[in-house]
Design goal:
The longest helix has 30 residues. The protein has 125 residues and is mostly helical. It has five helices and two strands, in the order ααββααα. A two-stranded antiparallel ribbon has the order 1-2.
């Protein structure tokens, strides 16, 4: 079998992912070791809670910038496939269309804008 040559970009992405994984692991281990150096408090799960908070903060810092990227890179161009819509109306009911779902995305919305409209998720974002 022939092996496909890895592109420099793929190698760079893999190295970046490995570096982020090592950094996050180091942060969690550092938080755990710092917590174990302190005298035992009333709550025996305090070191675990602190390590979980550190890991959650690292994950939030990694995901947060990605929420501002546009979902549809072709938004606003003439070749945007999501700009096409189909609609129908039955009897005297309100007409429905696929533009109701794809409209915000074709206007260049980001994940933060779309998720911000949801009541429970909006508070988290």
């Amino acid at each position: 079998m022939t092996e496909l040559a890895r592109t420099p970009r793929l190698t760079r992405v893999l190295c970046l992912a490995a570096g982020l994984t090592v950094s996050a692991t180091g942060a969690v281990l550092a938080a755990g070791s710092a917590a174990s150096a302190e005298p035992l408090q009333e709550n025996p799960l305090a070191p675990v809670t602190r390590a979980a908070d550190t890991a959650a903060g690292a994950l939030l810092a990694a995901v947060n910038p990605n929420l501002d990227l546009p979902l549809d890179p072709l938004a606003g161009t003439g070749s945007d496939p999501l700009a096409n819509s189909v609609g129908t109306q039955i009897a005297d009911f309100r007409p429905i269309s696929t533009a109701d779902l794809t409209g915000p995305i074709t206007d260049g919305a980001t994940s933060r804008e779309l998720l911000g409209g949801l009541p429970l998720v909006g508070e988290l974002v």
